[in-house]
Write a structure and sequence with these properties.
Elements (H helix, E strand, L loop, with lengths): L1 H10 L25 E3 L11 E7 H11 L5 H9 L3 E11 L4 H12 L3 E6 L1 E2 L5 E2 L3 H11 L5 E5 L6 H8 L4 E6 L6 H6 L2 E4 L4 H4 L4
Helix pairs in contact: 1-2, 5-6
């Protein structure tokens, strides 16, 4: 658990000075290798005229990136998730330390580059670990945005989100899950119309050293 907290701190530091184009501009098509994806039997097809929304569980992504030994390029990540489709919204959720100026800079960069950032102050638990749970916020936003989209993409392996994702799926909306397989709940994979292992797209979303 301590490793995860250490990664969150590292992932939220030192990125504010990076300058790249808004990832909402010039979103390019992407093709994922079939062997790296799991499609459900009732796979719903998406065309490039359909709108999607993306929901990224920041702490889950930070820890997955740490396990893979990579640093995420958030512009490349968004383009990879959107592919040849129209992006309506891209949400990024994370806990914050109000006194961390470098973290504020990173989150400001995210806002300037196409992400809607949803935050919650870190709360210190009885064991001394600081944590913020944003499952409720993610679930509500997915259910709310589903009425405006043909598909949603969830980047998280948290099984606590499977019920909300299933609720969205039951309305006829295509649901896609992207996460590191070793950190992904089977319930999420079972609900998803498509599952992609983060490891399979690592080369496309990593920052160039």
């Amino acid at each position: 658990m301590q490793k995860k907290l250490s990664l969150e701190s590292q992932a939220l530091l030192g990125r504010s000075a990076t300058t790249i184009l808004n990832p909402l501009r010039g979103v390019t098509p992407c093709t994922l290798p079939a062997a790296d994806m799991i499609d459900s039997p009732n796979n719903l097809k998406i065309t490039k005229t359909d709108r999607i929304s993306v929901f990224i569980d920041g702490p889950n992504l930070f820890y997955a990136a740490f396990q893979l030994g990579m640093e995420v390029d958030y512009a490349k990540l968004l383009k990879r998730l959107v592919g040849d489709r129209l992006l309506l919204r891209a949400y990024f959720y994370t806990g914050v330390d109000p006194d961390n100026e470098k973290q504020k800079g990173f989150l400001m960069w995210m806002r300037y580059n196409g992400y809607r950032v949803v935050t919650k102050d870190l709360a210190q638990l009885s064991d001394g670990i600081k944590k913020a749970n944003l499952d409720v916020e993610i679930a509500i936003d997915m259910i709310t945005m589903a009425q405006y989209c043909k598909a949603i993409v969830l980047l998280s392996g948290d099984g606590d989100l499977s019920y909300a994702l299933d609720s969205v799926s039951s309305t006829g909306i295509r649901v896609e899950v992207v996460s590191l397989r070793s950190m992904t709940s089977d319930e999420l994979i079972n609900v998803a119309d498509r599952y992609t292992d983060l490891h399979s797209i690592q080369g496309d979303i990593s920052k160039i050293p």
